Amino acid sequence: MRTWLITSLAGRVPDFEEAISDETPLTAGGLCLDSLALTELIVEIEQGLGVDVRAADIVPEHFETVGRLLRFLEMKRLDVAG
To answer: Which long-range contacts (CB under 8 A, 24 or more apart) does 45-49 make?
Structure first.
């Protein structure tokens, strides 16, 4: 999942010159994804990973950094599997 997400993010920000890590912010101060880019990423996550992201899930705790998003996606996948 990590590789898939990093590849997806890197494709969205080809001018981002740093390595994308767990600490990389998704918005300001990092990848600078705007609301449209985040919405497109969520659609890609739902289609590519089969994870249902609800409106109530779209909070800074889940979408602030790459690491937080990965933990959220793992949690959602475990909920589906369980």
So the answer is: 45/5, 45/73, 48/4, 48/8, 49/1, 49/4, 49/73, 49/77
